[in-house]
Amino acid sequence: MSLQRTFVIGDIQGCYQGLQRLLNKVEFDPKNDKLYAVGDLVARGEDSLGTLRYLKSLGDSFSSVLGNHDLHLLATMNGIRKAKKADNLQPLLEAPDKRELADWLRQFPLALRVSPEHTIVHAGLYPAWSTQQLLSLSEEVSYYLKQPNYTQLLEVMYGNSPKSWKKSLSGVARLRFIINACTRMRFVDKNAQLEFDTKTHPSQAPKGLLPWFELPNKQLAPSEKVLFGHWAALNGDTHSAHFIGLDTGYVWGQALTMLYIEEHRLIQVTA
Predict the structure, then answer these.
(1) Which of 59, 84, 190, 229 could form a disulfide with 38 if both were Cys (CB 3.0 to 4.6 A apart)?
(2) How many CB atoms lie within 10 A of CB 186?
(3) Number of structural domains in the chain
(4) Tens of pLDDT along 193-226?
(5) Are 183 and 176 a contacting pair, CB within 8 Å?
(6) 190 domain residue, yes or no
(7) Which residues lie below 8 Å from residue 246, measured CB to CB, with a gap of 6+?
(8) Beta bridge partners of 244
(9) Nearest-5° Cα angle at 68, 253 to 28
């Protein structure tokens, strides 16, 4: 039997054909290989429904963290928010198995350790947190997402405050900050306050804003790597051995990227 291979894929965004092309390129074998995703499984691509059905069919060979689009889908499925016009979600919202897909999706965490050295999270690692703290805070949110009344969390997760982390945060403020840091973060100021308006490449950002990964994080071990998506305009441009950006904008006509963990090699297909 050949050794198990581990792949981590960037934002799929419902691009079913691109997903299949990339998996075919590496001859992905669900019986032997493992596929992880950095979130945003759905949204602007041509077939979010087909994407979710396929990934669910992989069973234990697939796992993911949740992105902002995945959480928004759950809120939309439950009538809390309306689908955005740009999101191609109607077939999914009308699917006979949508409840089953929603229940499958909400079992995924916000952060996941995929090897002793590799942790995945959709938007990134908040600079004041260790990866162990990130995993622990992810579990706090997952606890509520896995409850029968999980929609109560979805109803209060929207909003930009609080902007800063304090260990003393509690209740809705605490959960919202964790969700925002894990699924929406791009830029912070020098005091590690989250800023949500700017989505450009760091070279075009307003003065005073830094990509979250440029604020020093003293809690990272030298060998640790954080794999993230969410930021298409970044195009993987972190200039850091610690932080690997896997959203390379396939849905915007660029590339779909996957990291082959065992060989530490990036594999791509272009749109």
Answers:
(1) 229
(2) 23
(3) 1
(4) 999 999 999 999 999 999 999 999 999 999 999 9
(5) no
(6) yes
(7) 8, 9, 10, 11, 38, 227, 228, 229, 236, 257, 258, 259
(8) 227
(9) 60
Range of the domain at 40: 6-270
**How many residues belong to the chain?**
271
8 A C-beta contact, residue 253 and residue 21: no
At 108, the amino acid letter reads: F
1 located within any domain: no
Distance of CA 231 to the CA centre of its chain: 10
Neighbours of 124 (CB within 10 A): 26
Structure tokens at 21: 């092309």
Q: Are 189 and 195 in contact (CB under 8 A)?
A: yes
Q: 94-140 pLDDT, tens per residue?
A: 999 999 999 999 999 999 999 999 999 999 999 999 999 999 999 99
CATH number at residue 259: 3.60.21.10
pTM of the model: 0.96
Tell me the residue ranges of DSSP E strands in 182-224: 187-188, 194-195, 210-211
